[in-house]
Write a structure and sequence with these properties.
The protein is rod-shaped, with a radius of gyration of 12 Å. The chain is built from 1 helix and no strands. By secondary structure, the chain is an all-alpha fold.
Length: 27
């Protein structure tokens, strides 16, 4: 169960970083 939880967290972090990069790319 704990592994699943941390797995979901890292996935959230990845999408969060993607969103940040996307915002940075905006003019």
């Amino acid at each position: 169960r704990q592994v699943e939880a941390s797995n979901g967290v890292s996935q959230d972090l990845r999408s969060f970083k993607l969103i940040i990069e996307y915002i940075k790319a905006l003019p």
